[in-house]
Amino acid sequence: MLGVLVDEGHEAMSARPAVGKAVTLALSALLSCLGVGCSGGHLDEGAPAGSAGEAGAAAAPSDGAGGAPAQISEEPAYASRVESFEPGTGAGYNQDKLPDIALGPPVGKGRQAGSLDVVSLGAGGEIVLGFGELGIFDGPGPDFVVFENPFWPGGDPTQVFYELGEISVSEDGETWQTFPCDSSGDGQGNFAGCAGFTPTLVYDAASLVPLDPAQSGGDAFDLADVGLQRARFVKIRDLETLPPGPPATGFDLDAIAAIHAQ
Fold first, then answer.
1. pLDDT at 99 > cutoff 50
2. Which of 145, 249, 126, 148 is closest to 196 using CA atoms?
3. 126-130/219-221 β-pairing
4. Is the omega angle on the peptide bond into residue 210 within 30 degrees of 0, that is, cis?
5. What are phi and psi of 213, to 5 degrees?
6. Alpha carbon 260 to chain centroid distance?
7. Residue 131 vs residue 39, higher pLDDT
8. Are 90 and 20 in contact (CB under 8 A)?
9. What is the Cα 38 distance to its own chain's centre?
């Protein structure tokens, strides 16, 4: 079977394929003898829960210790916790490396290559990430970025290799607001309100402060679009862009970053 997939590797990378990106990219990396290092870890299975000391929709929320305003972070905050993971059909790629594989900055490969530093949700799978004591707040422009591993075969953005995800946000981990997602797209490689179609670029997370989606890539979201002032949790649900079942792997999550963190 590996021989068949290897023979079809070039064709899969040059056209919209019917296989999962993580599988195709893994084969490409194997053939080119590229090594990818990933850290391991264990999933924290604790369900997200709100804190009674947090103000749900306040522009300057309390830190829960005497009502003092929480300090605004001058640097982008990357998701630091996997709150829950419900794998869908075909999931499993890098699942053994949770939670670390989904935390911290992304490992971008640019517009014409996709990273293998991802976890595949599977068809219809869901994952919830949190930021610890920090939260995302509504500031000027986009407030957070979701990084997947789409790429442009031959550098053509209209032929983007994508697996879309629906994004929801919550302050307490129970009540969710979902961004409207145009999964049919505009025919030019854009899927407004969805995650998973903008390539993750190569950038230095330590020096790109504040985080600029134009330089980092990834799909940016504004809390104002769903009427929230603050959110502590981000949920991604795979939209089954590819037919469910092997070797489709669903949405390939690399990272989530809060541009405006507090």
1. yes
2. 148
3. unpaired
4. yes
5. -55, -25
6. 17
7. 131
8. yes
9. 17
Output b/e per residue, 140-164; b: 16+ Cβ within 10 A: eebbbbbbbbbbbbeeebeebbbbb
φ and ψ of 68, to 5 deg: -70, 140
- Written as six digits, the tokens of 198 are 């903008």
Q: How many domains does the chain have?
A: 1
**Rounded distance, CA 252 to CA 12, Å?**
17
Query: Alpha helix (H) ranges present in the chain?
Result: 2-7, 9-14, 21-31, 213-216
The residue count of the chain comes to 262
Phi and psi dihedrals of 40, rounded to 5?
Answer: -100, 180
Average pLDDT over residues 16-39: 45
Domain that holds residue 232: 1-262
Sign of the dihedral defined by the CA atoms of residues 226, 58, 234, 152, in that order: positive
Helices (H), 125-239: 213-216
* CA-closest candidate to residue 233, choices 135, 105, 86: 135
